[in-house]
Amino acid sequence: MPAVDQQLVECVRHIIKGSEPLKVGVVAQKPSSLSDGFGSSASITFVSSVEWLEEFKELDVLIVNEALEKEMHDSRALDKFVASALHTLRMGGVLIVRQDLSKLNDPKKVAMMTDYLDVFRVEENGENVGFSFYAVNEVEDSVYAHQNWQDFIWTLSKKSFPGQHGENVTFRSPCFRDFLDRTQYTDTGIFAYEWIFGDNFISPGGWDQNLAILKRFGPMKTGQRMLDIGVGIGGGARQAASEFGLHVHGVDLSANMLAVALDRVHKDKDARVTYAICDATEYDFQPASFDFVFSRDCIHHIEGTEKLFSRIHNSEFSKLSRIRYKKSCELQRALKPGGKVLITMYGVGYGAHSESFKQYYIADDNHNWNFFLAVKPL
Question: Which InterPro entries match (predicted)?
């Protein structure tokens, strides 16, 4: 099976978590071997154009592979496709969209498409239905074989949402990515942070400070893998690759920031750096796949930090923290035995504070910077 088809199947299995799809629809202009990726019990139907989506009903999975060139330039055609895709899927069904955006010469297109798929709603049997976002991944074959970081796979699932309904309604409750992309990390906000902190960085200290923090990991070997949570515009990921030879997978919930990161790595052509738009508290990372997990000044944005970290256990933290977690966790799963987690974040920290400290740093809403380092037991 070709590498791209194999990754499409992996994206399906990533979100359905063990269940076997029985009805699969595939839209592709070229012949596909996707049928080899599903069990013998699966019924797979192929069509060559999204114009034939009415052929599908109650699908478990719909895969659309490089079939939206027109829709990328025509908003009405895109409306029609998304509405049709929703109507073809059963509730809980999965939509996989693979589209190469490199020819569009618009680095913001991935962010716009992500937001569009996230907000689109239609009425179905009196319900307001749309897509629940899971992830946007790069096509690995395009990155490694063709030096193209603008070829993407969107993974979504059909869901019923509360609130108003109606054809092409785009009302939905605000999510955390709305805060990131429409409030703090608009294009203006991103470039303002970068102007303050230095090229490719949106955290205090820029290149020099981030390098000093990375060195706190201790020895790092060329080819080891790092997961960068809250990678932002990618300066830290590219630094870890260029300075230490690491292979870095950066994830962020902000489509705006990752659009910048993706555009820059596409120009740099550094295949040691890949990205994904996803919620790190929900995404199911491959077990024991990273030597290092790094997060710089990001985790304090996450309301449910315990969901991300509650499974880190039996780990000795640095003298700054001395914290033990009793449960196992998503990062525990993602780390290899002996792997290290390094986190910096803003917060009031632990222990007693002097009155002058409280008055200056807390009453005036200034930041106290916290550093955590942990090692997964062998």
Answer: Methyltransf_25 (IPR041698), PMT2_N (IPR040516), SAM-dependent_MTases_sf (IPR029063)
Q: Where are the domains of the chain?
A: 3-161, 178-375
What are the structure tokens assigned to 214, written together?
């990375």
Domains 3-161 and 178-375 share a fold: yes
178-375: in CATH 3.40.50.300: no
Per-residue pLDDT of the chain (378 residues; tens, 9 = 90+): 899 999 999 999 999 877 788 899 999 988 778 888 887 888 999 999 999 998 899 999 999 999 999 999 999 999 999 999 999 999 999 999 999 999 998 989 999 899 889 888 898 888 899 999 999 999 999 999 999 999 999 999 999 988 654 444 444 445 544 545 554 555 655 666 675 666 766 666 778 888 999 999 999 999 999 999 999 889 999 999 999 999 999 999 888 889 999 999 999 999 999 999 998 888 888 888 999 999 987 776 666 666 565 433 333 333 333 333 333 355 667 888 899 999 887 765 566 766 765 665 554 544 556 777 778 877
| DSSP labels, 256-323 | HHHHHHHHHHHHHT-TTEEEEEE-TTT--PPTT-EEEEEEES-GGG-TTHHHHHTT--S-PPPTTT--
Q: Which amino acid is at 302?
A: I
Residue with tokens 């923090």: 213
pTM of the model: 0.83
Per-residue burial over 226-245, b = 16 or more CB atoms within 10 Å of its CB, e = otherwise: bbbbbbbbbbbbbbbbeebe
Q: Report the Cα–Cα distance between both ends of the chain, in Å, rounded.
A: 36
Distance CA 321, CA 342 (A): 12
User: Is domain 3-161 annotated with CATH 3.90.180.10?
Assistant: no
CA distance 107 to 113: 11
Whole-angstrom distance, CA of residue 75 vs CA of residue 78? 5
